[in-house]
Amino acid sequence: MKYMLLIYSDPTREPAYGTPEFQAMMGGYFAFNEKLKADDVAFDGEALKGIDTATSLRINGGKVETMDGPFAETREHLGGYYILDLPDLDTALRYAAMIPSAAYGTIEVRPLMNYNPAG
């Protein structure tokens, strides 16, 4: 089953860019990525640009409305994701706990729907 690990973090709690702490966090991400490759479980994953680049869309009364920024009001921002092919939720949670940003925010683990059972 595929699981999406959504990485939410509070930018006020994360190490600042360019600091030794930031470099250590990024080293943790590089090590995590290598583990995923070695374990042959990675399907996809990317970092996201900052929330200042986001545009949200909804349809209200048949009209498309767009607004700058993310929809939800929250301190934690969605900063990236991984999609992993894993046997069960317990395994997904074990990998989620290895993501460095778990120390600064929340990792949401969600199974993906499979609308194509043959594929």
From TrEMBL:
Stored Pfam families: YCII
SUPFAM superfamilies, per database record: Dimeric alpha+beta barrel
Residue ranges occupied by any YCII-related domain in the UniProt entry: 1-114
PANTHER family, A to Z: BLL7171 PROTEIN (PTHR35174:SF3), BLL7171 PROTEIN-RELATED (PTHR35174)
Family: Belongs to the YciI family.
Name of the featured protein: YCII-related domain-containing protein
Organism whose genome encodes this protein: Neogemmobacter tilapiae
